[in-house]
Design goal:
The structure is a homotrimer.
Chain A lengths: L1 H47 L7 H27 L1 E2 L2 E2 L3 H21 L5 H25 L8 H18 L16 H23 L6 H28 L7 H6 L3 H5 L10 H28 L9 H21 L3 H4 L3 H4 L1 H4 L5 H31 L31 E3 L2 H8 L1
Antiparallel strand pairs in A: 1-2
Chain lengths: 431, 431, 431
């Protein structure tokens, strides 16, 4: 009997050690994941949008403003919808990661309306979008029981189609008056590459930040890594092919090279295999480059959607692709392949509650629900933002920092360089 | 008896596991903390100061030089003053974090004299300031027993008022001869935003880098996070309000948005609560923006303090605010609220050595001591730096890289400036 | 007997805990190491090369392309040569770090031919260099049993001399036709500093990423940290000394300040001591600055090696220095000094298989082998790249993005600003 007691005590000891250890290890890994996602939100998204020649202050500055606001609002909204414990919202690393995810979605929508909205409009959009994001996330992950760790559906598809719908409602027929500013200059493209590279490097952390620790998390990170690598090669190759003289286009490199991360957002934690991930990444890069080249002009001319950053090509189509890949991979899941990992990835299949094929159907329904809420939400939000009370810029002064920022002198102008500006140009700018 | 032996052995086993585990876990977390602080020192401070149009090389280059020097000197000085073990200085992650903190203080002072000092002057200033920092830190933390994990007093208040006093002594009545260079250009402001965003993102790590691991560290990080978020919103709002036509000012965004991190440097690890942190952050952003708008011109004209980066607004006032918030929060500490955490935050109150109210007094005295040493030290240092032997720049060539750096040609000058390109050149290029 | 059983069980418990814990802790640290190295490869190398005024797109863009490709190819090649387990290649954090190391070597070679090669040439070079890297690594680390955790030999020496030999074979006698573009402009130098600072900050992680966890890893990181700090001071001092009027040269700061990390790549994990590391760092900075000032022009004129980034000064000579320091330090290893750590650093000396002096000889032979494979491999690769089928740029359009990228309009050209500068103003600036 004393021996039994001893065994029991030894057991308790080790167990406690293991548990506290697990908690702390989880913590350490989670902190790293949070930090990486945080860098993606503030540096990645912020600088990715600095490509416009005269909208760098607004890109990085409004990104900063929206993110700082949305983080707090998302903590509240996600807490209300699915994080209440005895009437209190628990905050911690996991809630901070989820708030970053929600913020990412808002920043994707920001990309669609970049240069054409006032900060007040953006804040109003954030209020509505964060709320709907939390509702959609609750329906998809909790009610429908779908899996979407990296957010192909809940973050990318939702953010993209929400933003595209807002852009549709806010359509500006005379936007070509600001056309000469809706493009990059040499150094603005280099600033944007800072954003691209940070997003690319930390995407494996993004997709795996809230997966189960251990094997599951590693698999997600590796799948994302291989998908991105293949996507990048596809992007460079195709960018040279579709150009008229074999030259590379910075727009493709900055954006399409990231589509591989979007497209494994759902299936990344599943048994996609490295080779499968590379195929998905290759496909994502391909549709993204083709989208920029052929689809974006059509969207603008036929559907009247002025998508400044091309979020349809980076987040929209690759997000839908990712949702479909996720549904198919889920439907094909077997206990032979997943082994003990099944409990982490598909607890409902493990417990025998659902068949794998039904999990696939759940995933497909979740995509439809996400699209529905995003499009409807964007439509309503668009009409709310159309009210003439937010100080939106006129068609002639879009893509221009000067309307919302005190601008410094021109490059080198104080350095005894004279800035010759025609009077009516200057007038417009200071208007 | 064998069973007791077994219990004892099992206990030993688990204990060792726990201890080594704790050491390693501490290590892992501490490494992350160190890395984040390191990025803040080199990228954050370095690029934050690149906002000047012709002083980018010096900002990031001298920042690099001073930091590389001060790190080593601080390791020695902090070792001499409070890190000796049997006649040897122990180095490790904790000493590296502390050296980074000390370096941060020197870089804050650098901000006050930016553009008006030679590298030799900066190195001499570092030698003195690092030494006084170590002495002040020893008095505040060890002799007086105050708490200041994030350095509202020891780092920010000390660095700011030291630098302001140096700037006062080095007052240049004819600085307006270089006035046209004491401002930003478009791209230099974007480089500065890289510094701002990195400082903002990693500030929670800064404030929590040397707190007790576990709950204490989490609380500190969360308090800092919420303070920064609220501060950012306050900064944007107030920046638009104080401007003459509702436009945002980059100077405010780059600096005041960070004041929330400074202001919870002392109280961050205390039971400030998320809501309390947000109030502090809101206040910090407010006084910082108002400082830039109304106080800085007065400081320059009446007190003859030419504060290039406005460190009084970002580090000085928010640092003092943080010290006061810390003193009040400490004085209000009760065992009911802190529970077991009291041992981590206020070991002297836990052990019954002091009352909470007395801890508050200690904190207040520490602020006074810090201000005293900083101002006196800055005064003496200023006079030492005034000796005409360091190659300081003349009033006409301040804020100018050209005096210390071999400068490359102008933007595009080699590219046949103003882009005059002969037709066949252009043809070749497009071939 | 029950008690024995209990002991045994308690032992098993703790053992499992310890093992799983060790694995996880290793994991957590390894992940941090991987992330840091990853940032160095994509941001560090990518932006370090953006110093050229009209080659920023290619520098960061081709760096991205080559790295994304080489990572995958290196995983395969390193797997084939020394990572097969039962016919399968195991992938994981360690293989990802090793692939990053191999990629680093390719990017060093890229630095030697920067601006003079087409993307196709670079991809062909990557295919060959990655393969030879894996072979050389296998010979040096496994066959010869040398130690080279930070890759002074296998990464830096190999990459530099491989690239220099390629540059020699691809010698362009008429390159001075593009001479006016082979230099920096103000903002391109600031972009390059982003690369420099990131490389500098994370180099301790680079050198210690694959060392044994615990003491060994800490020692490596600390040695690298002190070497870099001393190297930076040496670089600033010497840069001012060798300049004609005491001005600092950005080329030295951007490159030579990093030589201290290269030079402790082999000896960093050995008992080099902080003071020893600082001497090595000081030497590395010195030879690197002197190399840029005096040796590079000779290499170009006499040996016909056009080394665009000066990789001979940053990676070549410091790499050889690091190999020699490693050989000497290894030869001097005694059990008195290393204690239990001997098993981690020199397992063969610990087990009595070899004498310390013989380990030194192994290290020296490894340097010779590395140089041989690099030079021969570079020679062959150079001739393969000389085939006129890769679309290499003509001599007149080297260092020019326009040949491979669709370029945006000029800075400010859309803003219709004209830059007029009076002659005496320009004079003042260049004074």
């Amino acid at each position: 009997m004393p021996a039994r007691l001893v065994i029991w005590m030894a057991d308790i000891h080790s167990k406690r050690v293991r548990e506290s250890e697990k908690a702390r290890e989880k913590d350490c890994v989670a902190q790293k994941g949070f930090q990486d996602v945080h860098v993606m939100i503030f540096i990645g998204f912020g600088f990715l949008m600095t490509f416009l020649q005269r909208y760098g202050f607004s890109s990085v500055g409004f990104n900063f403003l929206i993110a700082a606001f949305a983080l707090q609002w998302a903590t509240l909204m996600q807490g209300f919808v699915h994080g209440m414990h005895g009437g209190k919202i628990h905050v911690g690393i996991e809630s901070m990661i989820n708030a970053d995810f929600c913020t990412g979605s808002v920043l994707i929508s920001f990309g669609a309306v970049l240069g054409k909205t006032s900060p007040v409009q953006l804040l109003v959009m954030s209020v509505i979008e964060v709320t709907l994001f939390a509702v959609n996330e609750f329906i998809v992950l909790t009610v429908l029981g779908a899996k979407d760790a990296g957010g192909s559906m809940t973050i990318h598809t939702f953010g993209a189609y929400f933003g595209l719908m807002v852009a549709r409602v806010l359509y500006r027929p005379n936007l070509d008056k600001s056309k000469h500013k809706n493009c990059s200059v040499y150094h603005s493209d280099l600033f944007a590459m800072i954003g691209t590279i940070y997003l690319w490097m930390f995407w494996p952390s993004f997709n795996s930040a809230v997966t189960a620790h251990g094997d599951d998390q590693h698999r997600t990170a590796m799948n994302t890594y291989y998908s991105l690598a293949a996507c990048t090669l596809a992007t460079y190759g195709l960018s040279a092919v579709v150009a008229h003289d074999g030259k590379l286009d910075m727009v493709h490199i900055q954006n399409a090279a990231l589509a591989g991360g979007v497209a494994v957002g759902t299936a990344g934690e599943m048994m996609l295999t490295p080779f499968g991930s590379m195929i998905v990444g290759f496909l994502a890069g391909t549709i993204s480059v083709l989208g920029f080249k052929f689809l974006s002009p059509i969207l603008e001319q036929k559907l009247k959607i002025q998508d400044t950053c091309g979020v349809h090509n980076l987040h929209g189509m690759p997000g839908v692709l990712g949702a479909i890949v996720g549904a198919v991979t889920a439907a094909l899941a077997t206990k032979d392949v997943y082994g003990d990992g099944m409990a982490d990835v598909f607890p409902d299949i493990q417990s025998g509650d659902v068949e794998a094929s039904f999990q696939g159907i759940r995933q497909a329904i979740s995509l439809a629900v996400t699209l529905g809420i995003a499009l409807l939400g964007g439509l309503i939000t668009g009409f709310i933002l159309k009210l003439p009370i937010y100080g939106a810029p006129p068609d002639t002064i879009c893509f221009e920092d000067g309307i919302y920022w005190e601008l410094p002198g021109e490059e080198g102008s104080h350095e005894e360089l004279t800035t010759v500006r025609t009077p009516d140009e200057a007038e417009k700018l200071n208007a």
